[in-house]
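pinging the channel bc i need a second pair of eyes. not urgent but kinda urgent?? the chain im working w is below, pasted from the shared doc
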Amino acid sequence: MTEESTLTMLRNLVDTLKSLQRTLYALRDDQRSWLLADLLNRPGPLWLAGLDLAGMDLSQANLDSANLRKTDLEKAQLVKTSLVCANLAGANLARANLHGANLEGADLSEANLEEADLSETNLLGARLEKARKLETASLQGAILPDGTLATDVERDRVLARN
């Protein structure tokens, strides 16, 4: 496959995802949830970079290795979602509920984590460099990037490294 055909394929995929996003907003909530659940639980990584998924319920979805770079996930429900090695760099996760999510090896650098619920998440090996508003996120019971279990006392240690 040539570089030009690869770029054409990627442009077509982005156009398809933008069309899907417009379609999702036109659906009723129950239809939207069913369609998203079907899409997000297919095998293989997804390319969802830059999309507006604010407020969406993506709980228990398999988003392993997904590209969610600069995606708006404000107030999204990501409870027990698998985001192993996902690219969330620069994503907006403000007030998102990631309780019990698996973020092992995920890139959260420069992500907005304002008041995000990261309690009981697995952050082992996750990148949190320059993550914004991490000091306001709930980390209770989370496995931190270095493998230790988070407590309120350890919050300062996590913040000092980022």
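so The radius of gyration is 16 Å. and The helical segments are 3-26, 29-40, 155-161. — does that match what u expected or am i reading it wrong
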